[in-house]
Amino acid sequence: MTQASAIRVKSTKHHPAVLISNRHLLPTESEQPDEVRELVIEVQEQDFVADVGQSIGVLAPMHGSSPEPWHLRWYSIADIPTKSDDGYPRFTICVRRHVQKDPETGLVYKGITSNYLCDLTPDEPLQITGPCGIPFEAPKEDDATLILIGAGPGIAPFRAFLKKLHRDRPDWKGLVRVFYGTRTGLDVLYTNDPKRDALLYFDEETFEALRALSPPPNWADPIAWDGAYSERGDELLKLLEQSNTYVYVAGLRAIGQHLDELFGSLMGSPKRWADRKEALIAEDRWAELLY
Ligand SMILES: Cc1cc2nc3c(=O)[nH]c(=O)nc-3n(C[C@H](O)[C@H](O)[C@H](O)COP(=O)(O)OP(=O)(O)OC[C@H]3O[C@@H](n4cnc5c(N)ncnc54)[C@H](O)[C@@H]3O)c2cc1C
Questions:
Q1: Is residue 236 pLDDT above 70, yes or no?
Q2: What is the distance in A from the centroid of ligand 1 to the CA of 62?
Q3: 61-113 residue pLDDT tens
Q4: Run of H or E residues at 216
């Protein structure tokens, strides 16, 4: 396990790519306000390498008076990378369409790259860069405990991570606890409904996804984590004390700060949590992808 606390960019070179598919992630009956789409992108260079836990950069072309020709934004790899029949690498990303309304003026701002991606149609070319970040690695012990904490887009790499764990580690028997905060289509990937994605990989005794709701409209808004954690406070404390527990955190930087406060209060003192976290980091049992 490698600590990925900083966003490290391997290369800023542009790579030509093509969109393979673009689908809405929400079930049609959903009343969720957000739009999240799953895109599969094929890079037109056979030696482009990126893996689960990393993100790829998408360069949206800028037109008109923009001083920059491109608007670069990053998207986490949300599934195990594959290859086309011709050997070209394919990556899945989940993109939330970013739309923000100014509460005072009523003006609507549409995020450049997320809207560009959400509106892209199959076979259209695009430019990508990266990857950035360090791949998430599973612990060597098959009976380790994994605590995965993500919110909004931060949940995407965990879907890929769990799928990869299931594929590559048939003897895995450790506990998996996923804490996620989102009100988006990504929910469909992480429910305890046995028909849903994540539970297809693990049985109910070892795997549990615990949901914490984020108030609309913004992923950056504070998430009501407290309920999900205090419900499981005793179990969490026990797991955090064990020498085979590994913690992975992904999502907006604000989540990291909020978690520090929560765990500080769960442990009865911010100092006690700070010491525990420091030990987890020192023992290579803490990985984070915060941005
Ligand atoms: C490592 C990493 C991984 C990520 N993974 C994911 C992922 O898996 N999925 C995902 O959906 N996102 C992910 N993100 C976030 C993503 O990179 C983008 O930040 C997000 O999609 C918004 O980009 P955008 O170009 O659409 O919005 P931008 O155009 O960059 O705008 C973003 C915000 O800037 C402000 N703003 C800028 N200009 C104006 C203006 N003229 N008027 C008003 N407001 C303005 C607004 O607050 C706006 O909401 C990740 C980010 C990082 C760093």
A1: yes
A2: 15
A3: 998 888 889 999 999 998 899 999 999 999 999 898 889 889 899 999 999 99
A4: none
In terms of domains, do 151 and 275 share one? yes
Q: What is the CB neighbour count within 10 angstroms for residue 96?
A: 23
pLDDT grade for 273, boundaries at 50, 70 and 90: very high
**Would 3 be classed as within a structural domain?**
no
CA 290/CA 288 separation, integer angstroms: 6
Q: Has residue 240 been placed in a domain? A: yes
Report CA(231)–ligand 1 centroid distance (Å). Answer: 32
Q: Is the CB of 98 under 6 A from ligand 1?
A: yes
Q: Is 184 in the pocket of ligand 1 (CB under 6 A)?
A: no
Q: Which atom of ligand 1 is nearest to the CA of 74?
A: 17
The phi, psi pair for 25, rounded to 5°, reads -90, -20
Task: Specify the number of domains making up the chain.
Answer: 2
| Same domain for 214 and 151 | yes
- The residue segments making up the domain with residue 29 are 15-132
CATH (domain of 259):
3.40.50.80
If asked whether residues 67 and 159 sit together in one domain, one would say: no
Burial class (CB in 10 A: 0-12, 13-18, 19+), 124: exposed
Give domain status of residue 116, yes or no.
yes
What pTM, to 2 d.p., does this model score?
A: 0.83
pLDDT digits (tens, 9 = 90+) for 146-187: 988 877 667 778 888 888 888 888 888 888 887 776 554 455
Cα 19 to ligand 1 centroid, rounded to whole Å: 20
Q: Is 159 in the pocket of ligand 1 (CB under 6 A)?
A: no
Domain membership flag for residue 140:
no
User: Does any ligand 1 atom lie closer than 6 A to the CB of residue 172?
Assistant: no
Tokens of 80: 């195990």
